[in-house]
Write a structure and sequence with these properties.
Elements (H helix, E strand, L loop, with lengths): L2 H31 L4 H43 L5 H6 L3 H53 L6 H42 L19 E8 L9 E8 L4 E6 L5 H8 L7 E6 L2 E2 L5 H6 L1 E4 L10 H5 L7 H10 L3 H5 L22 H15 L3 E5 L7 H15 L3 E5 L11 E6 L2 E6 L1 H7 L2 H21 L1
Parallel strand pairs: 3-8, 3-9, 6-7, 7-8
Antiparallel strand pairs: 1-2, 1-4, 4-5, 9-10
Helix pairs in contact: 1-5, 2-4, 2-5, 4-5, 9-11
Length: about 475
């Protein structure tokens, strides 16, 4: 027992002793006036004790019943205010889904409270009425003794009235201490049970759709707030419909900024971005993002079922979802789980939840992008958490994923160049080189240097994959 706990026990014992002494003295004073009054007085006190204990006990039960609703509500609210989830919420148009889920949880919480309140109201009213009637009867008795029989004086009546008030206050103190002890036993049982567990934009063109997408950046620049330099400088590039573009470059070269501008998460500070000849700033942004399936380097998944994550909380199409799992080689992992795709991610709400490895989580994020089946596929470092074998498997499936789509992906590792139609080399916020793998190797520039540096690594990884 720590010092805080010991101090609390001592304070409670002192309060109990003090209240018991006061109650004994008050009962003695009242008994001098009449033993008859002690019976309704004690009954009134017992009713009060019982009533207050029931309230404290019910409050504990209510809190316990509401905890799941509160956890879900708190989780959803935290997501809505966490910038780390902003990209997924906007790219998969989850705003309305999250709002609906939050409203649903709040409605369940409200109905649960109202149901319990209605059940408690009659019994609470009966107990309160009984207690009040007995108190009134006691005061009427003393009033009768003063006015009618004149057996006690007005001063004595005042003495007894003050004694009754003091008695009620002391009894309330005892009730508080006892109920705190009794109710906290339930909380402690929960704690001990836990400790005993084993470790382990605005206004724009609407209702448009494109089965194929051509992206054009025209003199696009971007500067982050409070920065004194441009993260992107006069970028000009066209990604044709059905084409696969690989973006490479050192850290801070502007690759991720380019992708976030493409996704409509940032607005250019200069220049324009076009989709099939239309300025994307003239398009409804929610509908525009529906055209893009994206996996970001700092992707986020939610404490919901695997199926809900992949389907972005929309109606689940089982065959389509299973196809997405196959594309990223997750089928065996999912089928090995007790509840398969209905298994929750994380153990925030459910002890049967699963904690996937970093590579499995990344593949699940890619599966979500595949499931969305949008005409534009954007992958930002899609294999950064994967081992060489898993990376090889993803790249082997990449051509199938990108088939019929405009695909743009960022990678520090150049082992995926064979799957790309064109390569853009970013350097200091600009496109320093652009072309095919063969043409860039002939230029013997930045790309050739990067590729040559990594060539020995590819040979080693190919040996690992072969093994």
């Amino acid at each position: 027992m720590n010092n805080g706990s010991l101090e609390l026990v001592i304070q409670c014992l002192k309060s109990l002793m003090s209240s018991l002494i006061i109650i004994s003295g008050v009962l003695y004073i009242i008994s001098k006036a009449s033993f008859v009054i002690l019976v309704p007085l004690i009954i009134s006190l017992l009713i009060g004790i019982y009533h207050d204990y029931l309230n404290a006990r019910q409050n504990f039960i209510d809190t316990k019943e509401e905890i799941e609703y509160r956890k879900k509500s708190s989780y959803l609210q935290s997501i809505s205010m966490d910038f780390g989830y902003a990209k997924e919420i906007r790219m998969f148009n989850l705003k309305e889904s999250f709002q609906e889920r939050m409203d649903e949880v709040e409605q369940l919480l409200y109905r649960s409270r109202e149901s319990r309140r209605k059940k408690r109201r009659p019994s609470g009213l009966l107990i309160y009425s009984s207690e009040t009637i007995l108190e009134i009867a006691i005061y009427l008795y003393f009033g009768f003794q003063v006015i009618v029989s004149a057996s006690i004086t007005l001063g004595e009546f005042s003495l007894y009235a003050n004694a009754l008030r003091q008695l009620k206050n002391s009894v309330n103190d005892i009730i508080y201490v006892i109920t705190e002890f009794l109710v906290n036993i339930d909380y402690l049982n929960g704690l001990f049970g836990f400790l005993d567990r084993p470790e382990f934009s605005d206004s724009h063109e609407k209702n448009f759709s494109f089965s194929q997408a051509q992206i054009k950046f025209e003199n696009v620049s971007f500067r982050y707030p409070f920065s004194d330099y441009d993260a992107l400088k006069n970028v000009n590039i066209t990604v044709y419909a059905g084409e696969t573009l690989l973006i490479v470059g050192e850290n801070g070269a502007g690759k991720t900024t380019f992708v976030k501008l493409l996704c409509g998460l940032y607005k250019p500070t200069g220049g324009k971005i076009y989709l099939n000849g239309t300025d994307i700033s003239d398009l409804d942004q929610a509908q525009y993002r529906e055209l893009i399936s994206a996996v970001f380097q700092d992707f986020s998944l939610f404490a919901m079922s695997i199926a809900e994550n992949v389907c972005a909380m929309k109606e689940i199409e089982t065959e389509k979802m299973e196809h997405a799992f196959e594309q990223v080689n997750l089928t065996n992992v999912i089928n090995a789980l007790p509840r398969k795709s209905d298994t929750p991610l994380y153990r925030i709400f459910d002890d049967t939840g699963v904690e996937l490895s970093g590579g499995e989580m990344q593949r699940l994020a890619i599966a979500r992008a595949v499931y969305k089946d949008a005409p534009i596929l954007v992958l930002d470092e899609p294999t950064s958490a994967l081992d060489p074998k898993a990376e090889y498997e993803i790249y082997s499936s990449f051509q199938k994923m990108a088939k019929g789509r405009t695909a743009i992906y960022i990678s520090h590792r150049l082992s995926g160049t064979k799957f790309s139609d064109k390569i853009a080399v970013f350097d200091a916020g600009e496109i320093a080189e652009y072309g095919t793998h063969e043409s860039l190797m002939k230029e013997n520039g930045l790309y050739a240097d990067l590729y040559s540096l990594q060539a020995s690594l590819y040979e080693h990884e190919e040996q690992e994959v072969a093994q």
